Amino acid sequence: MTFSDSSLPPVSPADAARLAAKVAGSVLLPGEAGYDDERAVWNLNYELIPALIVVPERVADVQAAVTFAAQQHRPVLVKATGHQIVGQAQGAVVIATRRMNDVAIDAAGRTARVGAGAIWSDVVEKAAKAGLAPLNGSNPTVGDIGYTLGGGLSPTLGRSHGYAADHVCSLDVVTADGEFRHVDPESEPELFWALRGGKGNFGVVTALEFRLFPVPRLYGDGIYFPGERMADLLRAWTDWHPATPEIMVSSFAVLRLPSLPEVPEPLRGTFTVSLRIAYTGTSEDGERMVAPLRAVAPAVLDTVADMPYTAVASIHNEPTEPVSYYERGITLRAFPAQAQDKLVELVGPDSQTSLAIAELRALGGAWDREPAVPNAVATRGLPYVLLGVAVGPRLEEQQLKRSVAKMLDGMKPWHGDRRMVNGLAPEEAADAAAIYGPECYERLASIKKTYDPTNMFRLNHNVMPAA
What we know:
By secondary structure, the chain is an alpha+beta fold. The protein has three domains: 13-96, Uridine Diphospho-n-acetylenolpyruvylglucosamine Reductase, domain 2; 103-214, 2-Layer Sandwich (Uridine Diphospho-n-acetylenolpyruvylglucosamine Reductase, domain 3), CATH 3.30.465; 217-428, Vanillyl-alcohol Oxidase, Chain A, domain 3 (3-Layer(aba) Sandwich), CATH 3.40.462. The protein contains 13 helices and 17 strands. The strands form three sheets. Strands 10, 11, 12, 13, 14, 15, 16 and 17 form an eight-stranded antiparallel beta sheet that branches. Helix 8 (230-240) runs antiparallel to helix 10. Belongs to the oxygen-dependent FAD-linked oxidoreductase family.
């Protein structure tokens, strides 16, 4: 049997009270103090309206919440920061993990152990005290675990070390039967494979242990050029980056930024192109390597320099407060001259696009290599990720979607056959088979049948249990 989301009744106060008696954290019904705070998500254009929210403080609370959901035939959604949400969770139990945010660094073993609610800024800061760095994402406020379960594309260390999921040592998980499992390559190899890349389809990950790297500083940040020079800069960057060493990570972004105080003054209300740089070699080598890009056009703003690893969030300079937006990403299997011309046509100076951001990330290197212990990350061998972001309120949702779709659909001749789970939009939740490819999806579905046969964890980019 598979749970149904339709017509689920409210949770009764009596049932909520019985659950609350077993939970050290909070149990919240709609209308109660704290409910609105705990259901809030990062994107202000979306909202969660669950039947019940549990804010756990320990693993036993998570087990109680999952057992309660099973008894009531309700789906479960796990939320740390709410950066990626699918649906409204009507009738569901939401497990909001923000209080389980412990971060422990093992300097000698070069590992971190993080709780379900930990965010990247905390890990980066604590690891740096030991001269170490994680494979963190571009936004410091993103939750470690959701990012890693989706693969984890580090814009600083990924090209030399691969996906964040490749460096997971173990996970603590509460599965749909309410059981606590410590999962590593020896204890439960199939579940270990599926969790690393299969996103949140297999249970509630309450803790994660992963490897760190001895990277205390790097040469990096952003160089911003006039948007009118996009074509020249895109061709120069596309020719340049494949010949750089794997310790050089770069991306190309077309920016139409609003005139807001949090935007650096030279960029407010302007159309610019940004080259993002992260190089872990010497500053002298980095400066020499980047010189051909700097020579293409005069910079509006150039902040690329030696920096401590703790400053890496400035490379992408993403918002650290909730905003209203729509985003969607695809992979590209190639980016020849015709594709470059098409991207300039779609988002360049004559395009009339309303996108705030169009970003092209170059992959390759370790992102293409299978880790020592393989996992479910399905995007190896694809050379680029293309992301579109349109900013605006929910009233403009259809226009925001059309803006993103116009760019991504325009690049259709070069689309890859698989996609990054972390870059998907809510309406793509039914496309998991296409996201992973048939072979990977069939294996995930078989493992799903073992650990979540009723598809309790389906409020995501869902893998259905095998028939």
